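Incident review: delayed structure delivery

Summary: a single-chain prediction request sat in the queue longer than the usual turnaround. Root cause was a stuck worker, restarted by the on-call engineer. No data loss occurred. The affected request and its eventual output are reproduced below so the record is complete for anyone auditing the incident later.

Affected input:
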Amino acid sequence: FGSSVGSKSCPRCRAAPPRCGQASRALAPDMLAPSMKRCGQAVAVVVRRRGFATHAPPAGDGVVRHDWTREEVAEIFKSPLLELVFRSASVHRMNFNPREVQQSTLMSIKTGGCPEDCGYCSQSQHHKTMVKPTRMENVHDVLEKAREAKAAGSTRFCMGAAWRGPGQKKSFEHVLTMVKEISAMGMETCTTLGMIDVDQAKRLKDAGLTAYNHNLDTSPEHYSKITNTRTFADRLETLANVREAGISVCCGGILGIAETEEDRIGLLTTLANLPEHPESVPINALVPIEGTPLGDRIIKEGKAVHWHDMVRAIATAKVVMPKSSIRLSAGRMEFSQEAQAFMFLAGANSIFTGDKLLTTANPEFSDDKNMFKVLGLKGKAPFTGNTAKFRPAWAPPAEEEQLTVDLSSFAASGSAGAPPDARARPHAAPW
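Output delivered after worker restart:
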């Protein structure tokens, strides 16, 4: 029917409009030629020529719920991939500007020597990997890295310490100083310090912390196969402490840690049924590290997380947590720009910038710059959207140029015209 939209009669029944009984009510009349406004065959014509969907997303999409059943989430997760992405992209556009992607920089402020035994982590003291324990970074150096990150376009600075928790560590006081000073730069701040109690969470809040990262990693059923030094309930308790303190929650999971499809569904169901959805949901793809139990197993078996696994997880997360930002996190180096474009379409709207995530590679800054340019993406300004209410009173208002900052506005690292501070990039560690 491709060339028949302007014809004088219906291409199927040849009847003039008044006599054609196949009326379509699915499309606005002004989309059709006058002679075909009543013919159902016109639907196929317009769909074919304009690429419209033949049905709207399910009723209720975009509404925040906390009563998802595993069966409901499984039905979404297992739906045909293109239909799932169309659905999640539609939900994404209900709550976010689809062109905005937050650029975050992650720095490991205390690397290695962690007492936890997570089977995937190269920083655990239980595993023999190439990662060696280091001392806590000093405040001055961390603040300098934050300035460099801001100059390069990042609007959130994340700090990770390989701790079970701050406990009574004096270093926690240094973290509070870092958070206070970096938030005063006008950047969002995020920390991941292990398990924290309510008092510690409130002190971080008082220092100006925007978000606290504490991933659930996987389903409740699979969690004990990943670590034996803490429980799933421990993770949930820390999330509750963070919420009580008034800090936004950053909580997601990892694909590729020997989990099943049902475990992925279980993780997403748990996240979607938290009393409040996390403002940020990181979806990580494991980069297996030699010397870790899971890494050695994955390498031996030759298994890997495929691009469509990431797309499916991101899209499902967006449908069941419609107002959450979905972060495309660790493992991004393993996926082509075309695959990443599909992930952005599905609802991912945050990435880590910088060429290294501690022990694993990350796309070069120039690669991300080019990708943003090709896809027409731009950076998200700090303290906007679902983080607007977390701006500390002392944080300066966003400068005019920050409101439209994007990767394409900066030259590649070290090139002429790049801000001097943008030429040095902080090393970072995946969550």
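Verification: The first strand starts at residue 100 and ends at 110.
Action items: add queue-age alerting; document worker restart procedure.
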